């Protein structure tokens, strides 16, 4: 009931969730929508349509240099970009939540070691390291890319969760739980975890945004999965073809617009959760 009230009262959070659900539904039903657009033709097959066709009822966003329907490619790119970003975000958030919970709850030398490790990852220049690792990984697929991005996306969640656990463990109900002889795991999962769900959501949104942005950067450089079409790879293709010079800006604008919508939806969710559950921002919910 509490979360339902927050959702209905916070316009940014509601708008972000609606937009993100729409994007996810487009990704889930991508095979069906592509079939409606171009029939049973493989959207990655070359030479099926005239090249560089302008937008028309037959090809809503035109065709590319190899005669492929841009709208169909866009849906495929949206699906794989979201898959990489969400998978990397989930893995990074799970790792970050585990690190933050352990560090915040147990404190002492455990906290010192985990906090130092988190800070060390945060100061590493991530993009150059990702570029180097991607160049040396022989088989880059969706899962490998997601795991690679997750390796550098967990510290934000870890710091957020740790800060909240440090505050929660001093509450009276935690002392009561200890006096009731509850084990550490029982206290974490029964007393602390329910209060961390909004902050885990913030970490998930932030990690997903960061992963998609990093994936986009690697794809534009030609270092992402070569066996799948993503939004970044579409922009890489368009740049290599000189699409803007040829007056075919739609081939660049379409995946760029999809990326912007993903970032907007996740940032709206992030800001909405912060406004709803951060005491310092509760007066700015935009009700």
Kindly report the average pLDDT value: 84
Q: How big a fraction of the residues is strand?
A: under 5%
Number of strands: 0
The count of domains is 1
Task: Give unreliable regions as ranges.
Answer: none
Sheet with most strands: none
Computed structural class: mainly alpha
**Percent range of helical residues:** over 70%
Output the CATH class name: Mainly Alpha
How widely separated are the two ends? 18 Å
- By CATH, the superfamily comes out as MetI-like
Q: Note the total helix count.
A: 12
CATH topology: MetI-like fold
Shape: elongated
Q: Which architecture per CATH?
A: Orthogonal Bundle
As a whole number of angstroms, the C-alpha radius of gyration is 22 Å
